[in-house]
Amino acid sequence: MLCRLTIRDFVLVDRLELEFQQGFGALTGETGAGKSILVDALAFALGERADTGLIRAGCERAEVNAEFDLAASPAAAAWLQEHDLDTQGVLLLRRVLDANGRSRAYLNGSPVTVQQLREVAESLVDIHGQHAHQSLLRSEAQRALLDSHARLEPLLAEVAAAWRNWRAAKALFDHASSGIEALAVEREQLDWQVRELQTLGFSTEEWLLLNEEHKRLGHAASLVEGAQFSLQVLTEGDAACEAQVAAVANRLDGLSEYDPALSEVAVLLQSVQAELSEAISALHRYTNRVELDPQRLVEVEQRIEAVLGCARKFRCAPDDLPGLLARWQERLSVLGEAADLASLAARAAAARAQYEQLAQRLSGKRASAAEALGREVSQVMQQLALAGGRFELGLLPVEGGNASGLEQVEFRIAGLAGSEPRPLAKVASGGELSRISLAIQVVTSQAASVPTLIFDEVDVGIGGGVAEVVGRLLRELGGERQVLCVTHLPQVAARANWQWQVSKKSRAGEVRSQVATLEGDARVEEIARMLGGIDITAITRRHAREMLRRS
Question: Labelling 472: which of 244, 328, 349, 412 has CA 20 to 30 A away?
């Protein structure tokens, strides 16, 4: 349930904090006062697209915070736990839009993407806009509404995946069938290229070792000469460094008896002796291991030339040859499969059978859901001055199917302009379409799992006794979940459990929207204004009190 909405510098709102209640609430006010701005602010916090036009003039950023009680939304709580976000029974959505167009989103203080914001919002709030009835004229929107109402999205995703798999398998078969000769030529060329690289038997590790060995063999004479010179200087000559260091160390060690300060230097020289002795031993081992080997140098150079020649032939660096071989082998494997037309045909047929099996299962569930939805909407239509009207959902076959299944959905109406069911767009007038849309929304909302429903002027084009029915339907919905309706109809507002009034005030040359909670006489005055316009009489007020009393 939505508990609190805090808005900062959003369109006409500078600072506003709203505390929401349970049940059915009405949001009323003059046209242009900013009622829909509050809905837009909530939609913004829930992840709707935004641009800098939402920032109040002269401000650097807009910010909206929406706090929800998760007790009525286990799906949202589960989503937060899955993403390791702290809940403690409360969810705070925060979204900030800067003047440079950058948008930032947070869930319980943790930064998230706008997409993540939308994901969790789907289980919190359902917003029905004032132009929702227009989307009902589109076949894709009609299909999406039926699938959503029947909770068929998971099966629909399986159908779409099976469709893509089938189309990919069919495309591979068609390509192989039409270009079998070209594939054979490509396969033959790849085959000898792969054989040549396999014969070379080259690896990146070998290339590193070859270069190191070539460098060592090519400079073997210099290496031996340098090692021998070092040994001569350190230990073998008349003025060998090792002997001189030893002499100095012994002399200082003897003198340290007279002055202990020299003992520290003697110890350091003894350490130098040990290091020097280890270095001399290492040089001896090196000179014994390194030797001139012209034959091995020739072999290494021939191997390097073979690798370089292959790299030149295939126009790549030597290091890239192993990767090139792997790619060619993979492509050769694909071409091998493509050459087997019978196997490709069988694969495509199996993919098609899988798609058709899932799509037929989807069709069966759609048929059952369409019958139930048509019956329920028809019942509500009778209460909305559409007596005799019947709502049906036609499932029109799509030849070959598509990613959405084997049929498209068509909303139909019977009994309004003839007995035969006809497409919604060809039968209903503007006012009828609004009422039919409201009936659909009421029915689908009753089956929805979200705890909060927002209706933004969905009662446009409705009045009189029908408006009273709309108010009653929304009041009934409010008994099961939280409902907020932006309305101009007094019959609807009077049915609300609680009511807010939105108005515009001009301060210091700036126009700002503000919201007031209506109770007692203030609510009577607002209902009277909605009934009587500018001149509110005692009779109008009495009528307003009667409407509120009856609610």
Answer: 412
Phi then psi for residue 533, to 5 deg, are: 80, -135
Dist CA 190 CA 335 (whole Å) = 10
Q: Which two tokens stand for residue 275?
A: 């290091």
Burial-class residue 333 by CB neighbours within 10 Å (0-12, 13-18, 19+): exposed
Q: CA-to-CA distance for 398 and 412, rounded, in angstroms?
A: 18
Per the CB < 8 A criterion, the answer to whether 91 and 99 are in contact is no
Phi/psi for 426 (5° steps) reads: -95, -5
pLDDT tens digit string along 188-201? Answer: 778 888 888 888 88
Q: Which residues contact 135 (CB under 8 A, 6 or more apart)?
A: 141
The token duo for 296 is: 């091995």
Query: Alpha carbon of 337 to those of 68, 176, 182, 330, 343: distances in Å?
Result: 55, 9, 14, 11, 8
| Distance between first and last Cα of the chain | 23
CB-based contact 455:133 (threshold 8 Å): no
For residue 339, pLDDT beyond 60:
no
Beta bridge pairs of residue 234: none
